[in-house]
Amino acid sequence: MEKTIFFDNAAAVKPYDEALECFAAESRTHYANSEAVNLLAYQARKALDEAAERLSSVLTGSRAHPVIWGNSATELFRIAASFPEFVSSRATALEHPALTANLKKFTAYSRIPVTSEAEPDFSNCTEKAGLCAFFQVQSELGIIQNTEKLFSGANARCLLTDAVQAAGKIPTDKNADIIIISGVKFGSPGGAAMLLAPEGEFTAKLLEHAEKMRKTDYALSRVSVPLMRAMTLAAEIAVSKMSERTKRISGLNTLIRDGVQKFGIVPTLPPGTAVSPYILNLMLPTQEAAVVVRALGQLNIFTAAGSACSAETNTPSPALGAIGIKGKKAFRALRLSFWEENSYEDGKIFLSGLENVLKNY
């Protein structure tokens, strides 16, 4: 059977076997609704509290961060954006659309411009915003931001880190008032979490807001105790393997980055840009990435386009546009993203498959 090469791990990764086994085992024990008033519900809430302390500890080094549980990062972006005290907000065009869409819906949103090197320009941030949000790792381009440095220029009452592409891969930012993660990015079968600064100005009120959104407005899903326990275990496993895995993935990234040069393919970002080894965005010389993605899929090699094929949409990637890559060129960005099971051999198979696709494009 032809080997499957999965290089679309920024979208979702294969769950750890241990996390799946944890979910099954916890489902046999914690099946009661945690919001009920019976003994099983009390035990479920206690299990969630213990999971919150473990998750906080493995990601921040402190067990003190309160946790708001959710089913997806998008759901939690909505909870943060809809907090009534965040009347205004700021973010760059490089932030994830799920985040900016919610900021635009619930707050007076203003965009922070970025340079071609993806550096935010704070020159117009003269008035204090309610909320300012930054990614730690950009989901399409892999850019790593120094959030501590950015926060100093943000001029906002509350600071949010989108750590969706960072958790379990690089050390998680510890300076934000709000940290949001997604379990499917680091080996959980699902789940998401919002970690709040223990002494944050808005922490108590955000917890109250989340409860209202869950129990009164029905805009936040019921908490699955087995799923959140499985996600916590996945985070612990991912972090424990981080150092060794990152070293190995960096080698794979370099192999591909060097190997595609003979095809006239170069990294999309300028040299010297700080990027995650888990995401490699490449600029094809003439080919549309979506067409190449489909052709590679026929070879059992799964990647992603930096933006959808122009035959399917006339809207190029906002992230590429923000750094000055526009027009037809914006449809030539090919994204590869790596995780646990990807190997050096996978890289060689990809390069061979890519060569075949480009010859027959």
Report on this model:
The strands form 3 sheets. A 7-stranded mixed sheet has the order 2-8-7-6-5-3-4, with helices on both faces. It has a 4-stranded antiparallel sheet with strand order 9-10-13-12, covered by helices on one side. It is globular, with a radius of gyration of 21 Å. The chain contains 11 helices and 13 strands. Helix 1 (17-29) packs antiparallel against helix 7 and helix 8 packs parallel to helix 11. Strand 5, helix 5 and strand 6 form a beta-alpha-beta unit. The chain starts with a strand and ends with a helix. By secondary structure, it is α/β, with parallel strands linked by helices.
Straight-line N-to-C gap? 25 Å
Overall geometry comes to globular
- What is the CA-atom radius of gyration, in angstroms? 21 Å
Query: Which structural class best describes the helix and strand composition?
Result: alpha/beta
Number of helices: 11
Mean pLDDT: 92
Fraction of residues in helices? 25-40%
Biggest β-sheet description: 7 strands, mixed
Tally of strands: 13
Could you name the key traits of this structure?
single chain; 361 residues; alpha/beta; 7-stranded mixed β-sheet; 4-stranded antiparallel β-sheet; 39% helix; globular
